[in-house]
Amino acid sequence: MATRIVEVRHGILKKNDELAHKLRTRFEQSGVFVVNLVSSPGSGKTALLEQTLAALSGTYRAAALVGDLATDNDATRLARSGAPIRQISTGTTCHLEAEMIDSALDGWDLDDYDILFIENVGNLVCPASYDLGENLRVVLFSTTEGEDKPLKYPTIFNSADAALLTKMDLAAAVEFDRDLAVRSIHQVRPELPILDTSARAENGLRDWLAYVTDRIERFRSSPAHAAESLDHESAK
Amino acid sequence: MSKQATENDAIRVKNVCLRLGPLSGVVPDALRFSFEVATTNTVLEGAQLEIDEVPVVVYCPSCEAEKTLTEFVGFRCPDCGGIAADVRQGKELEILSFEIETP
After folding, report:
1. B93 touching A, CB under 8 A?
2. Burial, A23: exposed, middle or buried (Cβ in 10 Å; 0-12, 13-18, 19+)?
C-alpha cells in the first residue's frame, strides 16, 4: 500500500470557460452580437425582451434563447414577436452553462442573425460564474427589489457590462431611491453604465434600445476586437 | 476526479485539496455536505475535503496597490475606504490536488 499526491490545479469551471471561448469565436465569425440577460426572478427580463425584439426586428435579425427550470411559458410569450425563440429547460439547474447554449443552437445557422439574446435563469448567484460566450452581460434590477441588492449579490453586478433599472414606472409607488440604488451598483462596479427602463411606459426602453444598438454597431465595425476584450474574467 | 483517481490506480482517495474564494458563490459548509453525498459509492467515498479559503484581493486605485479584504462586505479598500472593485482574487473554485492510496 502506497500513498501518492495527484496534482490537478485546475478550475472546476475551466471546461465551461473553454467552451464559452469557442462559442465567442463562433459568434464573432458569424457576426452575431450576443447579450446575456441576468437578474433575479420576476425583475422583468421577459417583458424587456418582448419589447426589445419587437423594436429591433425592423433593423436587425434577432433570435433568443430563454432559460428556465421548467415550463416554456417565456418562449411562448416571446415567440409572438416573430423572432426565432428556443426554450432551454434546465431541470434542476439554477443557471445556464456554455454547453446548454451550444446544444440549443443546434440546427441554427448563426450567419442568419445579427443579435442573439440569452435570457438566463432568474438567479443572482450562479449565473455570475458561467461565461456563455456573450459580448454583453446585462444585469436587470427592478425598482421593487430593494436598493441594496447589488451589495447583497456583488459578484453578478461586478461581472456585468451594464445595469438596467427596470419597472421605473413603479418607482414612485414603491418609494424607490434611485440615487441609493446607483450608489450601491457603483460600490460593487464603479462606472458601470446604468439605464432606466420601463417595459410598460411609452418610450420606456428608449435609452436601452439606443445603448444596445450602439453596441451592435460597434461590434459590427470591429467584431474581432470586441470578442477579444470580452472573454470574461472568470476564464482563467 | 473519479476518472483521474482510477487512471492513477487509486484504491481510495484520502483527501482532496480545493481552493475556494468568497466570490465563487460556493459556501464551504454546503460543499462539504454535498461532497459527502455525491461521493458515496465512488472511489472518493470517505475522502477528506481540505478547503483553502482564500480571501478577496482587490486593486485599490487610490492607494495604487492590491489589498486583501479579510472580511468581505463590499468592494472597499480596507485602508483608505475608497471604492476598489477590480477583483484580483476571490472567484476561485479550483481542485489543487488529491491524495490517493495505491496497491
Report:
1. yes
2. buried
